Amino acid sequence: MADSALVSNLTSNAEALYPILVQVNPGIAKLEPYELRYCLVNLTPTQGWASVTPAPEGEIEAQLQDRQFFESIQLNPMRAGRIVLDTQVMGLTQMLLAGLAAGRYSLTWVNSQFYFDLRSFIFYPRTCYYSPAVFEHFGGTPYRKFTPRQTQFASAFDIGYAEFKQANQEIDRAFIETVKGLIDTLGTPILMTLAGPTGAGKTEIVSRLSCEFQGQQRSFSGLEVDNFFKDRDFRDQHPLGLQVMHFEIFRQAVADLRNGRSATIPRYNFYTAISSHDVDSQLRLGATPLTIPPADIIFLEGNFPFHIPEVAPLVGLKIVYLTDDPQRLKRKWKRDIDYRKKYDPVSFCNRYFRSQYLRAEEVYRPLMQVSDMIVDTTEATLWLTPELQAKLKHPAV
Fold first, then answer.
1. Secondary structure element (H or E) that encloses residue 368, with its range
2. Which end of the chain is less congested by CB atoms within 10 angstroms, N or C?
3. Residues 230 and 245: beta-carbon distance below 8 Å
4. No. of helices (H) and no. of strands (E), the chain
5. What is the separation of C-alpha 203 from the centre of its chain, rounded to a whole number of angstroms?
6. Which residue ranges in the chain fall short of pLDDT 50?
7. Of 210, 236, 197, nearest to 359 (Cα)?
8. Which pTM does this prediction carry?
9. Whole-angstrom Cα distance, residue 2 to residue 79?
10. How far apart are CA 10 and CA 27, in angstroms?
C-alpha cells in the first residue's frame, strides 16, 4: 500500500497535492486549494486513500493496450439510483493520484500515458493514432507543418468552435487550398470523403469546403453514408463491414455519380433505425428511396470504412481529419453537454474513456494507412502521400 502521510489523508491535504496536479494540467492553477478539495471528495475511496495500492507502471501500460479492458468499461453503472463512473475508470484515477502523491509515479510517465480532464476530473489514456505503417504510407514526414496553436487550450475547461476555428486557421487554410489543387489535377466528377473522430471539426470544415467550391462555380452534393446501412438490429449482430450495408447499391450509386448521372439510394430512418431496403437490399413495400443529383464534387459524409479493399478504389480522395483526444473532449463538453444536452455527463465520461482506444484500433488507424491525406489540427501538420505530392500542380501556400 502507499504509505505516504499525504496519501493517507489526500483529500484533507489538497494543498500539498496542488503543485503536483498543476504539472499534470496547468488549468488546476485556476482552482483555489479548497476547490480542489471539493473535487477530491468525489474521488475519495470508500476505504480511504490508504487503501489504494498503486500498480507497477508496466502493468498499467499493458492494461492500456488490452482491448478487453476497454470493452469491459460499463457506460451506465448505477448506484443509489444514479449513473456513476465505471469502477475501473474511477479506480485508475484514484491509483494515479495516490501514486503521484506517494512518489510512486513520475510526472513524466503519467503525462506520457494519460491526460487529465478538468471538467470530469479524471485521467484518460492517451490514444496513439499514428503507427509505423501510417508514417511509411506518407513517406515519413508531413507535407506541410505549422506552429501548433491548440496548445493555448492546455488550461481550458472546454472549447467553443469560434476559438477552435481560430487556432486551426493556418492548417485549415492549407488543407482547403491543397484539396482545391488536387481536384484541379484529378478532375471531376470526383467522390471524396473526410473521416475523423467525433469532435474533430469535420462538419464545420466540410461546410467551408462547400463554400469554397461554390465560389469556384463547382457543384457540390452530399452522399450520406448512414443511408447505406442496414437495420440496426441486423448490424448489431455483425461486425462492421460490407455485410452491414447495402454495398451493391452503394457501388452502383458511385458509378452513376462518377459518370454524371443521378443516383438512387436507400433512405435510413434515424429514429427507428430501419432502412427503406430489407437485409437483401430490396426496396420495402411503401418505402421511398432517395435521389442524389450529379455534381462536380460528391462528398461522402460519415466515418465510412474506406480501408476495406472493395471500397477504397471507389473513392477518389480519402481524407482523415484528426484532432487529439484532450481537445476533442473539451469541444464535446461545450457542444454535446452544454449546448445539445445529448448525454448524461457521467455516462459521457465512461463512453469517452471506453471508445477512443477501440475506435482508433478498429477505424482510424486502418483508415490512416490507406488515406490520401491526413489533416492533424493538434500538431498542425498536413500529410499527403508522395504519389499525390508528385501530381499536385500548385503546392499549398
1. helix 365-370
2. C
3. yes
4. 17, 15
5. 13
6. 1-3, 396-397
7. 197
8. 0.89
9. 28
10. 20
